[in-house]
Amino acid sequence: MAERGWPGVHIRERPWKPRNTDLLSTRQRTRLPATCRESVVVPDISGAMLSLPTDLFAEIEAATLEIVRFDAARHTSPLPFTAPLLRSEASASSRMERLTVSSRKLVEEEIFGTGQPGSRGNAPEIVANTRAMELVSRTVDPLNPGTILEMHRILMERTNPGIVGLFRGEPVWIGGSDLSPADAEFVAPDSATVPDLIDDLCAFMRRTDLPALAKIAVAHAQFGTIHPFADGNGRTGRALVHVLLRNADLTATAALPLSVRLLTRVANYFAALTAYRAGDPEPVVRLFTTCARQAAELGVDTAAELCSIRDMEWEPLLTSRADAADRKICDLLTSQPVVDVTTVTDNLGCTGITARRALSSLEEAGIVVAYQIGKRHRAWRAPAVLELMDDVAEGIGRRQAG
């Protein structure tokens, strides 16, 4: 049932005239439809009234308290767990677009860059997603079109440089055929309306009369409805969620693993977006509230698991003095679970000889595994941390998986 006062998207039949028909075969041209159903009017929401059930407000308050607890854990944890959660969140967001990569390949690409085996496949795109979320943590005034364009540029500049940092100038749709939107699940509004709709969305995001999680859920749904880019809308929209979390002072970083929890409810996620476009924002607000609470709980649990790996699994295997290089490397591995000698010397300020000896000691203890990352390039990985990152990115933690 649509919420009173909340506008839905208006859809009608429109003539369909595809571009570049000369590139199509005769059979393809004859099968093209003459019309399509397009979201002709996406309403402004900056001043719309959002009416929600009383029980949902209570759920929003409970979820908000869990997020505050999660952010407090970041400050009190003896280990820096932000980086692993950030990578897992970026990976989960990308998985929702069917872009998958192991945590090992993701960290290799992030640390060692292009030209390495980790550069193949989806790793560069997911690293770009991580960098877009890192931008969020440095953003001072995020609620403007320029920041949205900048996030999109970071996400897409390597894989699709021709569209980066630009609002689309062509029709886009979800589902159906690549040739036409005839059987599409959703057809985005005319590209000429995008700049004004984004301005209105930014005005909505500046509102102070709504609970933060409700505003975030609606803003995300509206962004997906506008679909302002030719590609990368889903990942940009989920990165925008972290802008709003930080802007609401709920998270100090972009590490709340919200996409991780949404990944376990993909069908509900898309159903909620469909309901929103019909004029009912309650399902998407309820889904985001539930997933935000679960994400905060998962984040706290993940921090505890990292401490358990460091203190319960690794510490008994170490025999060196408290300030030894191998112990410092163990601390480094909890946030950077793939290293080489250069990584260790840069982070610890030690010599290459000291780094090699310490890594060899950790290898003998079974804490790291040595392998070749490239020709004459040796690296060491911490399987325990990488396995935890993979579990989190798939929407589960060790406690849930066990």
Give a quick rundown of the structure:
With 402 residues, this protein is mostly helical. 54% of the residues lie in helices and 7% in strands. Residues 143-290 form the Fido domain.
Descriptive notes:
The protein is mostly helical and 402 residues long. The chain folds into two domains: 10-301, Orthogonal Bundle (Fic-like fold); 309-401, Orthogonal Bundle (Arc Repressor Mutant, subunit A), CATH 1.10.10.10. It is 54% helix and 7% strand. The strands form three sheets. The chain has a three-stranded antiparallel beta sheet with strand order 5-7-6. A two-stranded antiparallel ribbon has the order 1-2. A two-stranded antiparallel ribbon has the order 3-4. Strand 6 and strand 7 (377-381) form a beta hairpin. It is globular and about 70 Å long. The protein starts with 9 loop residues before the first strand and ends with a helix.
Please describe the structure with a list of short key phrases separated by commas or semicolons.
single chain; 402 residues; mainly alpha; Arc Repressor Mutant, subunit A; 2 domains; three-stranded antiparallel sheet; two-stranded antiparallel ribbon; 7 strands
Specify the CATH homologous superfamily of the largest domain: Fido-like domain
Do you know the CATH topology of the largest domain? Fic-like fold
Order of strands, main sheet, comes to 5-7-6
Question: What is the averaged pLDDT score?
Answer: 82
What is the β-strand count? 7
Cα gyration radius (Å): 23 Å
Number of helical segments?
A: 17
CATH class category of the largest domain: Mainly Alpha
Indicate the percent of residues in helices.
40-55%
Order of helices and strands: EHEHHHHHEEHHHHHHHEHHEEHH
How far apart lie the N and C ends? 40 Å
Largest sheet: 3 strands, antiparallel
Instruction: Count the domains.
Output: 2
Structural class: mainly alpha
Approximate shape: globular
Q: Architecture of the largest domain in CATH?
A: Orthogonal Bundle
Low-confidence stretches: 115-119, 397-402
Q: Give me the oligomer status.
A: single chain
Protein name: Fic family protein
GO molecular function: ATP binding
Domain Fido: 143-290
Binding site for ATP: 231-238
